[in-house]
Fold this protein.
Amino acid sequence: MTILEIIQRSTDYLQRHGVPAPRLQAECLLAHVLKQKRLQLYLQFDRPVPEPALEQMRQLLRRRAAREPLQHLVGTAAFADFELLTTPQALIPRPETELLLEHAGRWLAGRLASAAGPLPQILDWGTGTGCLAIGLARQFPAAQVTAVDVSAEALALARLNADKNGVSGRIEFVESDGLAALPADRRFDLVVANPPYIPSAEIEQLEPEVREHDPRLALDGGPDGLRFYRRLAVECPPFLAAGGTLWLELGHGQAAAVCQIFESHGWRVMALEQDYQRIERVLGVERHTVPPPVQR
Ligand SMILES: C[S@@+](CC[C@H](N)C(=O)[O-])C[C@H]1O[C@@H](n2cnc3c(N)ncnc32)[C@H](O)[C@@H]1O
């Protein structure tokens, strides 16, 4: 069979199994099997594919038809301008989160340009694959980054990803429920968080790729999806340096409720940014009161 025939048959097969964007998925899987870039396939449509590669493709197609995510089948995901290893132990990074990286990074760049100071200290709450911690460490070579997660498995993957991207020397990984394991005297100029924000009862309605293959710990935001925003509003202030800010990813339709939570805990909304579907997706907040001491 030729490359074009395999793409056509695979597309039909994935379509029959209800997989979204079946042609793109078929091309990505075949490119992975043949160790080529996807667009290179277009230059070789008539090339015959040897049997071992065909057999590997059949196996991957069966798994994709059973709704295993493409990123788990190929083992990697693109994020911003770098690549991450992905496993079922951590959330597959999403394009929305690239927007959080972009806005938080822009804020820190502006701050560094306007005031000389000590090395910027950055905290990534709930690091997962490490996408935000790594993105910020790459963008700010002078910064020290701390990445926390309650999941030891996610942290192990994040460490591998930091290594893969050459920034493991500048990220400290800490297993912690929220900020509980951090020393009380730590202060951060920038905190980023993409917390679990799906209301518990809605998880069963998500696509199978998400509800069966992303860790529940990374999805479940409690009964109304807002559990971790409430925690961050209360737990973050003692760890903010003077003038420090917190940047958050928001779930669809959560902006008003999350702003209200932060404003009622002495925060001020600095920025509320939309994604490409015009959904309010990224919130930047700062304190307008003196941070209270750490209470344990
Ligand atoms: C939505 S995922 C985000 C992962 C990654 N930052 C990203 O944007 O792709 C939320 C992350 O928060 C972590 N998490 C959940 N509860 C936590 C807690 N109590 N303390 C710290 N991290 C937590 C999960 O393990 C998961 O890695």
Notes: The mean pLDDT is 96.
